[in-house]
Amino acid sequence: MIYWIFLGFAIVAEIIGTLSMKYASVSGGMTGHIVMYVMITGSYVMLSLAVKRVALGVAYALWEGIGILFITLFSVTLFDEPISALKVLGLVILVAGILLVKSGTNKARKQVSPRGDNHATA
To answer: Where is the chain membrane-spanning (predicted)?
Structure first.
């Protein structure tokens, strides 16, 4: 469970870091850059902790996909960036892809063979 929390923190840190990058480019101040460096670094640290128990493909799909989704939504609301039907379609397909990657990952199950040996199967 803690590894999923690490992944959640990694996603939040990535979103904040990327939005801070945009804020820094708009405002011209150093605060946005400092927040960006700290949050992006924290995001990678948390992601590296998460992948100790969360499958790499699932962790990366969630980290990047949810990040893109929320960064796009926040950039539209906070920075008045335009959104088109094509972008919305892309976000819908992105969410569908994340769900497919997540649902396609099964945990290993233990099976007992007729000889009594325990085997983990994927």
So the answer is: 5-24, 30-51, 58-79, 85-101
- Measured between alpha carbons, how far is 32 from 35 in angstroms, rounded to an integer? 5
Q: Hey, where are the domains in the chain?
A: 1-106
> Which residue type does 11 have?
I
User: In this predicted model, what pLDDT tens digit does every residue of 47-81 receive, in sequence order?
Assistant: 999 999 999 989 999 999 999 999 999 999 999 99
Letter for the amino acid at 51? V
Cα angle 45, 49, 55 (rounded to 5 degrees) comes to 125
Residue 118 φ/ψ, nearest 5 degrees: -95, 130
Rounded-to-integer distance, Cα 16 and Cα 54, Å: 22
32: Cα within 13 Å, side-chain hemisphere: 13
pTM of the model: 0.79
Q: Give the Cα separation of 24 and 18 in Å (integer).
A: 10
- The full DSSP string for 7-22 is HHHHHHHHHHHHHHHH
Is the pLDDT at 6 greater than 70, yes or no? yes
Judging by beta carbons within 10 Å of its beta carbon (0-12, 13-18, 19+), is residue 12 exposed, middle or buried?
Answer: middle
